[in-house]
Amino acid sequence: TGNLSWVYNDRSLDVVHAAFEGRGSWPAKGTVDASTLDFQLSASNADFTPLLDLVPMFAHYGVGASGSFSLDAKGSPADPEVSLSGSGLEARVAGTHYRIENLRGGLKGRALSASAHVVGVAPLGGSVDVKGKAQLSLAPLALSHTDFAFSGDAELPVVGTVTDLSGGITQQAGKPPQLALSGKLGNPFTIRGSLAPFDVTLAGSGLN
Description:
- The chain contains two helices and 15 strands.
- By secondary structure, it is mainly beta.
- It has a 15-stranded antiparallel sheet that branches.
- Strand 13 (178-185) and strand 14 (187-195) form a beta hairpin.
- The longest helix is centred in the N-terminal third of the chain and has 5 residues, at 56-60.
- The mean pLDDT is 84.
């Protein structure tokens, strides 16, 4: 349930006031059109999976999220300046569940940057620090040149505890995301390969 006051005129959306409650609360206001981006959103204990499902790229990987965050967007869709912050978010990606703390993100032009502390809930455990960058276009929506690095420890089903974990996920335009990581499972090991479709190779010897 909620209240929504908006005006749509000549391809310009002016959100005078929006506040939704039920699966959390979503107060928002601002203007979005071909040349203007002036929008603020503050979500409190909200489930925004239904919105993410509207984006084919996120729906394809089963991305879901809930929690609290604030978003401030200015500039224009062609040259945006966006900031995002949140803590205690719950995220789901391709059947895995994580808790995201100290989330910070920004978009200036097409340059996207983000950092967070991620705690595995299920089926993966452990925690890692994540920091990365990518190129993101809002009009049309497209993500490319992804380069995210992480470090920490992990608890993997069947495998066990992995220490000194470090690596990254990269993705070039039109190509599947690639994983490259190293760590210790008694002895050093590496994992490299594609995430979608999932096709990775583990290399190491004398692993516990």
